Amino acid sequence: MRLVAAEAYTEPLPTIAHDIELSPSVIKILSGAIDVIANRGARRLSMSDIIDTSGVSRGTLYRYFSNKDEVLAAVSEFVCTGFENGIREAGQGIANPIERFKAVMQFYARYTSENSPGRVFEVEPGFHLAFFRSRFGRYKIAVRDALDPVFDYLEKLVGGAFNRDAFVETLVRMQLSTLLVPASDEWLQMWNDTAENVQKWALKIAQEQKDVGKD
User: Fold this and answer.
1) Distance of alpha carbon 129 from its chain centroid, rounded?
2) Secondary structure of the chain: what % helix, strand, coil (to 5)?
3) CA distance 55 to 187
4) Which of 54, 80, 119, 161 has the greatest number of C-beta atoms within 10 Å?
5) Where do the H-state alpha helices sit in 116-194?
6) pLDDT in tens, 4-60
7) With b meaning 16 or more CB within 10 Å and e meaning fewer, what string describes 58-84?
8) Are 50 and 32 within 8 A, CB to CB?
9) How far apart are CA 16 and CA 25, in angstroms?
10) 3 vs 116: CA distance, rounded Å
11) pTM for the whole thing?
12) Is the dihedral of CA 143, 107, 173, 156 positive or negative?
């Protein structure tokens, strides 16, 4: 699955009018649409393109979607929900808070790299911008849910509460920046560093957020 680039939207992304079950056919449709959009952009996307790329019949496509706007809305939700589920699952079952932090951020880095290959953003950045602006809050919530146990641990180390929302926003904004400027090898290896070094990095941000607002 790849994050898509679509036509330059000047209005909010369309929303899905009804819940669509992620059956094998729907997943094939959405995956096919993502491939077409990533290669050609949404401006030239047609329902026929989706049929040809996904391998489903015309009847199957129209059983679930009436037009390409509905497909684009479903693609956006598909990608966002995939991130939300993946980021929350990444740290599950990891008792050590720093190892949990590393696992969550390793997933995030891998997700960004795998879902935005090549020149996808440059082809048609409008959809990317609309997508992230409309779902930025959901990304933050998912990351915070995954990292709240880590923050409990860090607060004990810094001796008090810090602004968790600001910490999460720092992480999300940093990772999104790699869509514009590809991550260096050093950045990609950051989350593979020793737990001690990752903890030092996290503590520095936690302390900065704890100190915000002090005289």
Assistant:
1) 13
2) 70, 0, 30
3) 38
4) 54
5) 120-123, 125-158, 164-177, 185-190
6) 333 333 334 344 434 567 788 999 999 898 888 777 777 778 899 999 999 999 999
7) eebbeebbeebebbbbbbbbbbbeebb
8) yes
9) 17
10) 6
11) 0.80
12) positive
